[in-house]
Design a protein that fits this description.
Largest sheet: 8 strands, antiparallel, barrel
Oligomer: single chain
Radius of gyration: 26 Å
CATH superfamily of the largest domain: Lipid/polyisoprenoid-binding, YceI-like
Number of helices: 3
CATH topology of the largest domain: Lipocalin
Distance between the termini: 59 Å
Length: about 300
């Protein structure tokens, strides 16, 4: 049933007592809800999952609320669990009973903000190489994906008093590229690709920390590769801070992804195709799985 039908048939916002007036399939009932954000405004994009409570707990409906915060599903009579989830929000779960011909007023559900992970203390945090991975995925022209990683790098995070003023810097040894194939790796190090003899380092330094929602941040800054600098955005999820490791030192963790366009760095795949060289495609997905140690005079040096 289109959500537009719900918008046409619902009563005005101040008075929902009369509910919906809509035709129902024979033998069915309906469930509808209006989802509001923590300050009471309509909230679109919240995922609503309706699951049977008996038997195999089969999911019978799943969709996101429309821009007006509305969701509607026609259901067979029975009992169901409704789960509402959204980025930066605490999940909401409740049970509904649907009867034949039932079409009650839309249930209003106000979401609550999720509990924020405690941000790491201000100071310098150094990457722990054995527990940090810098990976990439590229589409091989006409074939499957190529997965690889850089095995040598250094870097860290400076956490400022205001998180928005923090910085991240990483320097990658370009010759450490590894895709599990020696011939391909030698080609990637050559002048056709990374040209590691002339450009031995790939470097990123953030200049903006932008909070998105919940634990999600965007880090912006120049990435220098193959002698060319371009601004990139890292979509980052902060995973929290704990005590643990070599000597129970304080450490934090995050996941970050970015999409790079090879031609931005003068790596011209079309020219190489014209020369008959089979290469990866024009875009590369970069993934950083970071664990960093708080740096002070007692912090142990991570092993190589």
């Amino acid at each position: 049933m289109p959500l537009a039908l719900l918008r046409r048939m619902r009563t005005k916002r101040p008075d929902r007592g009369s509910g919906l007036r809509m035709p129902l399939p024979v033998g069915a009932g309906a469930f509808s809800c209006e989802v509001l954000d923590p300050v009471g405004q309509a909230l679109g994009g919240v995922e609503v999952t309706v699951t049977e409570t008996r038997g195999a707990a089969r999911t019978v409906a799943r969709a996101t609320t429309d821009p007006h915060g509305l969701f509607l599903a026609t259901l067979e009579p029975g009992q169901y669990t409704v789960l509402l989830t959204g980025s930066g929000l605490q999940p909401k779960r409740f049970t509904i009973d649907i009867a034949h011909g039932q079409c009650e007023p839309a249930r209003r559900v106000q979401m609550d903000p999720s509990q924020q992970l405690e941000l790491p203390p201000p100071g310098t945090w150094l990457f722990d190489p054995p527990h940090t991975a810098i990976r990439f995925i590229a589409r091989h022209v006409g074939m499957a994906n190529v997965h690889g990683r850089f095995t040598r790098f250094r870097g860290g995070i400076y956490i400022a008093e205001r998180m928005e003023d923090s910085r991240v810097e990483v320097a990658i040894d370009a010759s450490s590229i590894n895709t599990g194939n020696n011939t391909r790796d030698a080609h990637l190090r050559s002048a056709d690709f990374l040209d590691v003899d002339n450009f031995p380092e790939i470097h990123f330094a953030s200049n903006r920390f932008i909070w998105r929602s919940g634990p999600k941040w965007t880090l912006q800054g120049p990435l220098t590769m193959h002698g060319v600098s371009r601004s990139v955005s890292l979509d980052t999820t902060y995973l929290g801070a704990v005590n643990g490791g070599y000597e129970q030192e304080l450490r934090c963790a995050a996941l970050a992804t970015a999409e790079l366009h090879r031609e931005d760095y003068t790596l011209n795949w079309r020219n190489m195709l014209a020369r008959g060289i089979a290469v990866v495609g024009p875009t590369v997905k970069l993934e950083l799985d970071i664990q960093a140690m708080y740096r002070n005079h007692e912090t142990p040096t991570p092993p190589e």
